Every structure is written in C-alpha cells, then in structure tokens.
C-alpha cells in the first residue's frame, strides 16, 4: 500500500509519487504547455471513470469530457490532495485475493480510452505507472493469478499496438528491492537479454552486417586527405574566414619521395606572388575547404616555458580531481530562466513566497574544500613555486605593513588640522597629501582637489 510509511523518518510512496507528478505538472505548463495530461489512481475505494469500473479514479478529467492541458487551478488543487485523499478517494490494501476485480487491468483500460480521446491523434502517447507492488497478483490462487496475468498483459499489449508506450516508475520497499522480473518485465516489453532489435531485411529475412573495413569505406569522402583546388590573392582572405585554430603542414620524404622539393618550390612561389592556396580537406573527417598560407620561418621573441615531468604529473592529478565526469551543459539549468519560472509559478498559483532557485553555474566551493582537492592544489603549487611560495606572500604583506608605518611616521611632520583650519592644505604637494590619507587608511586616488576634500571630510572641518 503506497500510503503506508515504513517508519517515521521516511516519506510514504504515495507522497513521493504525488510530489513527482506535481513537479512534472509545473514543468509542463511552462516548457510543454500543449501537452494533455490525465491523473488516474487505481486500487481505490471510490470510482470515477467513464467506463464505471471499480477501483479506478480519474482525478482531473470530468466524465464524458476529453483529456486536457494542465492549468494553474489543477496544480493548486493537486498540491493539497494528500490532505483529502483518504477521505474523498481512499485506497484498498492491494488486490483482494478472493475477488475477480483487477484494478490494474481496469486502470490500463481507462488510461487507453483517455489517450484515444485526446485532441491530437498523431501525438506521442505515454502511460507513466507508479507502483511499489512488484507482484500485484502474488496473493491469488494459481489459476486466478494466471488468468489475471494473461488478461492484464494482453491489455498492455493492445495499448502498445495502438502506439501507447508504458513506462514503469518502480518504488522499492525499505527492506526489499523492486523485482521487475516477477511481472512488469513482460508488461512493458523488456527482453531478458536487453538486446537491441533490428529490422530484418525484406529479401531473405536476414540482418545486413557490415565489417569495420566496409563501414570505414562508406564513411570515407575522398581517397586523399588534402587536394589542391587553386590559388587566390592574399587580399581575398579575411580574418572572419578563420573558423578553427590553424595547423601546420610539413613535407615528408618517408611518405612520398620528392615531397620536400615540391613543397619548397610551392612555398617560394606562393610567397613571391602573394597568393594562398585553396584546398579540399577530407578523408574520414567531415569535409571542408581550407586555405594554405605560405609563412616565412621566424624565431620566437620569447622562449616558451617548459614544465618538468613532476609539474606535469601534479597538474594532471589536479585536473583529474577537478574534472566533471560526463559533463554536459544540459546538466546545469539557466539561473535567470529558473528565477523567471519561479516568478511565473508564484503568480499563477498565488503563492506568497518565491520558490528558491539554486545557481548551479557558480563554483562548487564545498567541493573545492574536499581534502583530496586541497591536497592536489597544494602539491601543484609546491611543484611550481617551491618552498618560497608562502614566504613571498608573507614578505609582500610585510612590505605593505612597512609602507603604512612609514606613511604614519611621515604624516606626523605636519599639523593637518591646523593647515585645514587655515586653508593651507592646497600648499602641500600631492605626495604629502597622500601621506595623510595612507596613514588614516583612506583612498589615495584622484586629483589634488579630491584629495583635499577627502582630508577635510575626515577631519570634519569641511562645510
């Protein structure tokens, strides 16, 4: 029974199912507002359906009306269903062993009828089945169990033949895992080996098999990787034509004898005539047009730093710690859109408070504090900066402290209050004015007039 709580700390399966449906309704009304949805409870005390079948209660579709799109009123009412469910609808404790009534069979029948009456005949039609009972007919006698299993599976097959897919959402017990192989494996049409089904060929009812070499040959666009098409002046080549980072092309006499000599002749001619080559680049990669530009060799102005093997090892270890496994941008919701949706939801449902939205694009501060990450960062810093990295930071702080103390000492050479009262601050230099500001932890940016006004404000004599 989904209404039963296994202990005080855990939520009932009914609460979990209702919460999932409520969240799905709120998402559909924004992202897929044209979807038509019906909520159907089975194994209930009360009944409400067009077929007048016992144990099935259609929540949001009035009798003799079609399935419709979710509304704000439906979402608000469904959020409160847990408070009124036992009183208004009720639940039975499983399928009664001595009864011939099959509420699961009836629920599939009602759901199939609702989907067939939908406004769109070509839309995708799905049944999401929530249950925590992996063997609905387990308490029946053998003959009754076999009969109910057969009729229920046939009803599910009829629905699937009409283009209605059935998706199971199992809810496991606290002390027992949901065993899908007892009944629902056959209902939703899972094969035991979970092999992919292939469409047989029309001629001999055989699958078409390709070898790796044949597939490679089919995917190959050209026999060569690079084919020269012609030449154009360098003035025709614009910066915005560059779509990807450039690569370098080198000759190799090991692959083609004489390629170096031909390459040098082509390179010199292109530089002298101021032209670039247009070529086709393909093979097993997606084909595209490329520009070949002759470039004179020049020594780099700055020597590139070289990392040691130890530094590379520590950097790789750090990257492994920070790497996001199976990353996809779809895993992170747009925070601006989520807040926008929260505002729309609050307006539509007359809610007093906005739903809290979490910005998942911000850095994971908690994750950066994990011992493994902290250790990898420290080892990387140690390999790059050595033992002096911490001392440099300390020395920098000490230098700033010395400068501040020197500023305080220099500020004592003048009576700034007297100079402010007599209007003689303008006679001091900018450096002398900044000495007072530094000694009193005030900003030192701006022109001389700004510095004087800042000192007067601090002293309290500015009118």
From TrEMBL:
An MF annotation (GO) of this entry: double-stranded DNA binding
Highest taxon in the source lineage: Eukaryota
Key word Zinc present: no
InterPro entries documented for this protein: DNA_bd_Ku70/Ku80, Ku70, KU70_core_dom, Ku_C, Ku_N, SAP_dom, SAP_dom_sf, SPOC-like_C_dom_sf
SMART domains: Ku78, SAP
Keyword vocabulary terms for this entry: ATP-binding, DNA damage, DNA recombination, DNA repair, DNA-binding, Helicase, Hydrolase, Nucleotide-binding, Nucleus
E.C. number(s) listed in UniProt: 3.6.4.12
Residue ranges constituting the SAP domain according to the UniProt record: 425-459
Catalytic activity line of the entry: ATP + H2O = ADP + phosphate + H(+)
Record GO biological process: DNA recombination; double-strand break repair via nonhomologous end joining; telomere maintenance
Group of enzyme by EC: hydrolase
Keyword Amino-acid biosynthesis part of the UniProt annotation: no
Alphabetical list of Pfam families matching this protein: Ku_C, Ku_N, SAP
Subcellular location, record wording: Nucleus
Region annotated Disordered, chain positions: 385-404
GO (cellular component) term, any one: Ku70:Ku80 complex
Endpoints of the signal sequence: none
Chief location: nucleus
PANTHER family in the record: KU AUTOANTIGEN DNA HELICASE, X-RAY REPAIR CROSS-COMPLEMENTING PROTEIN 6
UniProt record similarity statement: Belongs to the ku70 family.
Protein name, per record: DNA helicase
Organism annotation: Thlaspi arvense (Field penny-cress)
């Amino acid at each position: 029974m989904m209404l039963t709580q296994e202990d005080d700390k855990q939520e009932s399966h009914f609460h979990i199912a209702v919460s999932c449906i409520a969240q799905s309704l709120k998402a559909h009304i924004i992202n897929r507002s044209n979807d038509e949805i019906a909520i159907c409870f089975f194994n209930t005390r009360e009944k409400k359906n067009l077929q007048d079948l016992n144990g099935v209660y259609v929540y949001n579709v009035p009798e003799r009306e079609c399935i419709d799109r979710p509304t704000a009123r439906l979402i608000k009412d469904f959020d409160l269903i847990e408070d009124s469910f036992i009183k208004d609808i009720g639940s039975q404790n499983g399928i009664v062993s001595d009864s011939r009534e099959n509420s699961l069979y009836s629920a599939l029948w009602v759901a199939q009828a609702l989907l067939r009456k939908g406004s769109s005949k070509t839309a995708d039609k799905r049944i999401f089945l929530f249950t925590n009972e992996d063997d609905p007919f387990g308490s029946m006698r053998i003959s009754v169990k076999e009969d109910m299993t057969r009729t229920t599976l046939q009803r599910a097959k009829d629905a699937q033949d009409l283009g209605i897919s059935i998706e199971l959402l199992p809810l496991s017990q606290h002390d027992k895992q949901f065993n899908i192989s007892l009944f629902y494996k056959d209902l939703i049409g899972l094969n035991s080996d979970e092999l992919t089904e292939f469409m047989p060929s029309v001629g001999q009812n055989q699958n078409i098999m390709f070898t790796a070499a044949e597939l490679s040959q089919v995917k190959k666009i050209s026999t060569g990787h690079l084919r020269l098409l012609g030449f154009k002046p360098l003035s025709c080549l614009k910066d915005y034509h560059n779509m990807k980072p450039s690569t370098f092309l080198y000759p190799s006499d090991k692959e083609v004898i004489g390629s170096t000599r031909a390459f040098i002749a082509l390179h010199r001619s292109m530089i002298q005539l101021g032209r670039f080559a247009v070529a086709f680049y393909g093979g097993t990669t997606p084909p595209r047009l490329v520009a070949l530009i002759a470039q004179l060799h020049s020594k780099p102005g700055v020597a590139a730093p070289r990392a040691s093997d130890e530094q590379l090892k520590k950097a790789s270890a750090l990257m492994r710690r920070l790497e996001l496994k199976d990353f996809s941008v779809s895993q992170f919701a747009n925070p601006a859109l989520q807040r926008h949706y929260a505002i729309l939801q609050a307006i539509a449902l007359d809610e007093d408070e906005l739903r809290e939205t979490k910005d998942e694009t911000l850095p994971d501060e908690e994750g950066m504090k994990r011992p493994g990450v902290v250790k990898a960062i420290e080892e990387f810093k140690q390999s790059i900066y050595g033992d002096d990295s911490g001392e440099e930071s300390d020395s920098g702080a000490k230098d700033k402290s010395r400068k501040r103390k020197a500023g305080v000492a220099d500020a004592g050479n003048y009576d700034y209050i007297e100079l402010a009262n007599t209007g003689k601050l303008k006679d001091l230099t900018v450096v002398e004015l900044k000495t007072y500001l530094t000694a009193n932890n005030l900003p030192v940016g701006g022109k001389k007039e700004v510095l004087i006004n800042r000192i007067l404000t601090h002293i309290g004599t500015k009118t």
